[in-house]
């Protein structure tokens, strides 16, 4: 086996890969070399850290309602004093708020929940 990184499904793999590359401080690879238009890699510091695979008709999780259950989610971390700025950056990149009720001013350790452009929930954590 050779690949050892998570993969997320999306209908629009370019938007999804661009989003995660911006969030993780990386770049999208193989956008021009994928003849079938089915896959993108997100590369950070020369290593693939996330795959994005085309999934036509994708039905995304409905967290916190479990009518379409959550399969997997990613956590990204920020320093406590960077949480609010990181939240604004995620929204500017295309994330959507799902539960942002926790505040680093009130909690030493915590998280806020967002959805990426394809609708996958992920957490911005601190502490």
TrEMBL record:
PROSITE patterns tied to this protein: VOC
Gene3D superfamilies to which the protein is assigned, alphabetical: 2,3-Dihydroxybiphenyl 1,2-Dioxygenase, domain 1 (3.10.180.10)
Superkingdom of origin: Bacteria
Listed Pfam families: Glyoxalase_6
Source organism per UniProt: Brachybacterium nesterenkovii
Boundaries of every VOC domain copy: 2-127
Lineage: Bacteria, Bacillati, Actinomycetota, Actinomycetes, Micrococcales
Protein's name in the database: VOC domain-containing protein
